[in-house]
Amino acid sequence: MSLNLALLVQASAKTYPERTAIILDDVRYSYSQLDILTNKFANVLHSLGVERGDKVALMMPNIPAFTIAYFGILKLGATVIPLNVLFKAPEVAYHLEDSDSVALVVYEGFLEEAAKGFENVRETCHNLVVFAPQGNVPGGAFDLMALLKEAPSTFDIMQTMPDDTAVILYTSGTTGRPKGAELTHFNMFYNAAFAADRLMGATPDDVVLAALPLFHSFGQTCCQNLAMYAGCALTMMPHFTPQDALNVFQRDRVTVFAGVPTMYWYLLNYPEADQFDLAQIAADLRLCVSGAASLPVELMYAFEEKYDVTILEGYGLSETSPVASFNVRERPRKPGSIGLPIWGVEMKVFDGDDNELPHGPDHVGEIVIRGHNLMKGYYKRPEATAEAMRQDWFHTGDLAYVDEDGYFFIVDRKKDMIIRGGLNVYPREVEEVLQAHPAVSLCAVVGVPDEALGEEVKAFVVVHESYADRLLDEADRLRLAEEMRAYCRERMAAYKYPRQIEFRDTLPMTATGKVLKTDLRSSSG
Questions:
Q1: CATH 3.40.50.980 domain position(s) in the chain
Q2: What is the pLDDT at residue 522?
Q3: b or e along 334-369 (b: 16 or more beta carbons within 10 Å of the residue's beta carbon)?
Q4: Are residues 352 and 346 in contact, defined by beta-carbon separation less than 8 angstroms?
Q5: Start and end residues for every CATH 3.30.300.30 domain found in the chain
Q6: Alpha-carbon span 149 to 37, nearest angstrom
Q7: What pTM was estimated for this model as a whole?
Q8: Can you tell me whether residue 323 is helix, strand or coil?
Q9: How many C-beta atoms surround the C-beta of residue 77 within 10 A?
Q10: CATH code that applies to domain 418-523
């Protein structure tokens, strides 16, 4: 039996050829047009020597070219490596090298950092392909628009197997560098199909807003792939702002919205929301879903009252394609819960010895998962895979309890990961960059509460003795802190660098010399 995730586009093009598939402002593509463009993209890659099983990195915002490239890569039987568009050159180089990518497809707006990263690994990543509506294609790179114009419009989709790797999504942990979760064609296909049929009840009459970044698993499955499966219209936002979102809601008559808690907070508290036809928006909007971070119950109720819509909260990880549990429409919703495991997926709560815990809030343990949504493993990381997949259960690092009805309630994260505005920030990665600053003797990074973003990145820093004279007063501290922020901004994606920096003479330590981050978080209120 063969299965290729790109069948999502091909099948909808046969069934709904003239229906709108993608919207970006005034630009619209029908499903038949999208199918042809993905064929052309597959032919472009083939002409560049890309073959089945090769890895192709994709660094684009939410624009039609992302979807065209994504499914074109899959039609060729290659594997998609989505990259965060905010990555700096060292991050780009690392992901290209670690994933064994043979090509990088990038939007011209992010070309500067992408090209610098590409230059560092061009011995193994041979092709830089630029989507450049403004014509900014550097020497030695390929002009995607020119190549698409000349490419044949038909392509015989590659017959991949259900267990072949379709997408590698990079994630991380408390130690080490980001690692790639290998997700199969079946993982991604069934997760999108389940989300469309059971979670959202999506139909071809729906208009789905893609405000979540499509390089993220949540955006891919619950926006793009869901829409392609159900024959919906997918309206894209390259960058979320509450004003732009409300404009798209109103203009395109959005019916389904998937967002992170930060987006709901901004939409609820946007002071000029009344300039839009909120009655029409509420009448069109039939369902909202939230994930990637815990949604405060008060925020949920306030948003639902203002926009007259129900929000269903769920849970997942890159390693689970991502949907693992949800408050589903046919069962009672429990605000504050991440719901029930989706069909075919098992979730339990284990103690530190991997024994299942009883139900009830007094029995908090680690969420473990197994099922059809689970990754093949971490790419080229057998030891990390074995550690995460103990006894055939994927250990998430998230702490929760299960109530008597089987609903899961997250209470904390075992890992130190920070979720800032729905995006994962790994303290170790930030600490490694900050530690290289000449003034830093010791540092520790934690997440602190933030009303809009959920969490903000904060660094506690002990400076070298030679820099003590630069911290004589508050003005000195502010200057050095800004210097450190600028240093980090140059070396990592913008959402990662520490907005807050606090200087200390010492950091709290355990007897074995490990920084007590719990103490740092509690001291920050």
A1: 31-182
A2: 83
A3: beebbbbbbeebebbbbeeeeeebeeeeeebbbbbb
A4: no
A5: 418-523
A6: 10
A7: 0.86
A8: strand
A9: 22
A10: 3.30.300.30
